[in-house]
Every structure is written in structure tokens, then in C-alpha cells.
Amino acid sequence: MNVVLSRDGQVRAMEATVVSAEKHFGQLCSLLAAHTRKTARLRDVGDRLVKQLIEVAGSEAPDLRVTLREVAEDLAKVQDYRQAQAEIKRFKQVQSHELKQLERLEKLRQKSPSDRQVISQ
């Protein structure tokens, strides 16, 4: 009888873990998608500005042309840097989430060392 109650408790705990993971992963994915869209719009505006600067530079005097092209190149570098920052931030968030999941798994293992097969699934 105790084995059945123990299994029922384990099943409920695993179901609660699955429900929680589904909820949190859904929210995480939604927020990451919103962040990506916003970052992409900002990147698009920056890219258009770089393109416009290069077009304007083509019709200017040589000194101004060189300066405008340099500004455009610097702005493109800033855009690339921002993109890299956003990607690093996103990777850190995912890594942090995965570490928390591993910590939860380790706690489950410590609570029920005899159920390693169930936990590993």
C-alpha cells in the first residue's frame, strides 16, 4: 500500500513539474520572441540609416564623402555590437534557466535517490 501511495506522490510531483515547465517555457519563448522583434526593428532602422549615409556620401565633395562613409562604417559597427550584446544576453538567460532546471533535478535526486530512473526520464 505504501508503495502505491509513494508512486502516486511521485507521479503528482512529476506532473506538477511538467505543468510548471510548460508554463515557464511558454512565457520565456514569448518574451524572447518579443525581444527579438524589437531588436530586429532597431537593427533595421540602423541599417537604413547606414545605407542613407552611404547614398548621401556618394553625392558629396571628397572630404565630406570620406567622413560620411566613416560615420556609416562606425554606425554599422555599433549595430553589430548591439546585435552581439543582445545575443549574449539571450544566451545568458537560457543558460541561467538551464542551470536552475539542473538544480531542481539535483534536488529531486537528493530527495529520492532510489528513483534515479524515473528522474532521468
TrEMBL record:
One of its GO terms (cellular component) is ciliary transition zone. It comes from Cavia porcellus (Guinea pig). This is CBY1 interacting BAR domain containing 2. It comes from the Eukaryota. One of its GO terms (biological process) is cilium assembly. It holds the Pfam family FAM92. The lineage of its organism: Eukaryota, Metazoa, Chordata, Craniata, Vertebrata.
